[in-house]
């Protein structure tokens, strides 16, 4: 008899083995996802096999916090990912002190947009276990002076 795998695994949405390992942790999960247009960052608490989103930030929220309208198409860039993580950390840092990273089925690529968002969360004041070499450097996140000044301006506004 052929055994059929679970539907969410077949659809490429859930890695059950990795999810179980993350759920065993007593800390909430920091979920970072990227779409074709945006970066999504959430802090999720799991209780009795149910997930509850405690805090959430989307890179489209940056438009309300001073991101230039002419750069609307770059809301999935590394600076936007960093600021989205920083925005989430500022929302959640009063209640959440530590979280565990959940990448889902995203590929684990060092110094990528996902790790740029993680760096924003860490700089915002939430402790997340990670390896130092996976985070992008300041030069990687902000390639020119205009981007650096934009990041500094938005960090003070947030």
Helix segment count?
A: 6
Low-confidence stretches: none
Indicate the multimeric state.
Answer: single chain
Gyration radius over CA: 16 Å
Largest sheet, spatial ordering of strands: 3-2-1-4
Compute the average pLDDT. 86
- Give the strand content: 15-25%
General form: globular
* Helix/strand class: alpha+beta
Helix content: 25-40%
What is the β-strand count? 4
CATH C-level category: Alpha Beta
Query: Main sheet?
Result: 4 strands, mixed
What's the end-to-end separation, in Å? 57 Å
Notes on the structure:
The protein is α+β, with helices and mostly antiparallel strands. It has a single domain, classed as 2-Layer Sandwich (Nucleotidyltransferase, domain 5). Helix content is 35%, strand content 17%. It has helices at residues 7-10, 16-23, 78-92, 113-123, 138-141, 145-157, and strands spanning 29-34, 39-47, 50-58, 100-102. It has a 4-stranded mixed beta sheet with strand order 3-2-1-4, with helices on both faces. Helix 3 (78-92) runs parallel beside helix 4 (113-123) and helix 3 runs parallel beside helix 6. The radius of gyration is 16 Å and the shape is globular. The relative contact order is 0.16.
């Amino acid at each position: 008899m052929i055994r059929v795998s679970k539907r969410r695994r077949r659809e490429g949405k859930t890695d059950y083995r990795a999810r179980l390992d993350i759920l065993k942790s007593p800390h909430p999960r920091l979920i970072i996802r990227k779409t074709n247009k945006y970066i999504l960052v959430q802090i999720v608490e799991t209780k009795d096999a149910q997930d509850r989103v405690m805090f959430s930030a989307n890179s489209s929220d940056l438009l309300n916090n001073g991101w230039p309208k002419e750069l609307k198409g770059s809301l999935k860039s590394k600076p936007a990912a960093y600021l989205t993580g920083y925005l989430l950390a500022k929302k959640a840092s009063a209640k959440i002190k530590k979280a565990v990273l959940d990448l889902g089925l995203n590929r684990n690529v060092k110094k990528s947009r996902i790790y740029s968002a993680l760096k924003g969360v860490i700089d915002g004041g939430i402790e997340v276990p990670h390896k130092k070499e996976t985070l992008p450097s300041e030069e990687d996140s902000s390639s020119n002076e205009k981007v650096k000044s934009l990041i500094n301006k938005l960090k003070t506004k947030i």
